[in-house]
Design a protein that fits this description.
7 strands, nucleotide metabolism, EC 3.6.1.66, RdgB/HAM1
Length: 218
């Protein structure tokens, strides 16, 4: 049988502090130490692909090759129904096409401007997580998460990041940015993907441990 032992340190192929905090909390039951690639001096990988899956895989392989450690990558974005699913993989840079410097606040501003006269506010936030044991791992772990909502007419809430202030969830009657961290993690696109990834890691990477959270980590 092939050796599937994996270090309990994972490099996160991102320097996004919000993603790091969310994923660290969501993967806590595994006793994993998640390290942002920037802490190791690893530059961001190019993301030239048209799908979340391809970009996440490229980022995970890049971080694993540069660090020598297993790596986890998240490629996530906003898909707006009225825009045919865009901005999709270009979510983080959405505002730059309208002349604004890249920032979360400008992304929100640009989207609200573009949707000012649009009544169809349906949108989905999606997350694709990919984990690899090495850059040449022939069997990457892949998990998906998706949550549907509506684009609000104005920002609301101080929590979260990205488009959270305008992603309105009818089931809760508020935006993601108005939810507590625990509630958001339980229902967000990234939360759903992370729970699926946690299950995959338990099954594929630590199959001998029925409950990795109860084991000591060296």
């Amino acid at each position: 049988m092939a050796d599937t032992t994996v270090e309990r340190r994972l490099v996160l192929a991102s320097n996004n502090a919000g993603k790091l905090a969310e994923l660290q909390a969501l993967l806590a039951p595994l006793g994993v130490e998640l390290i942002a690639q920037g802490q190791l001096g690893i530059p961001e990988a190019p993301e030239p692909h048209p799908t979340f899956l391809e970009n996440a895989l490229a980022k995970a392989r890049h971080a694993a090759a540069a660090s020598g450690l297993p790596a986890l990558a998240d490629d996530a974005g906003l898909c707006v129904a009225a825009f045919g699913g865009r901005p999709d993989v270009d979510t983080a840079h959405y505002c730059t096409q309208f002349g604004y410097p890249k920032s979360d606040a400008n992304n929100v501003r640009a989207l609200l401007e573009q949707m000012r006269d649009i009544d169809d506010r349906r949108a989905a936030m999606v997350s694709t997580l990919v984990a690899v044991r090495s850059p040449d791992d022939p069997e990457p772990l892949v998990a998906f998460g998706r949550v549907e909502g509506l684009i609000a007419r104005a920002p609301a809430g101080e929590r979260g990041f990205g488009f959270d202030p305008i992603m309105f969830l009818p089931a809760f009657g508020c935006t993601f940015a108005q939810l507590s961290d625990d509630v958001k993690n339980a229902h967000s696109h990234r939360g759903r993907a992370a729970r699926a990834m946690l299950a995959l890691m338990r099954e594929r990477w630590w199959p001998s441990q029925a409950d990795p959270s109860s084991a000591s980590v060296s």
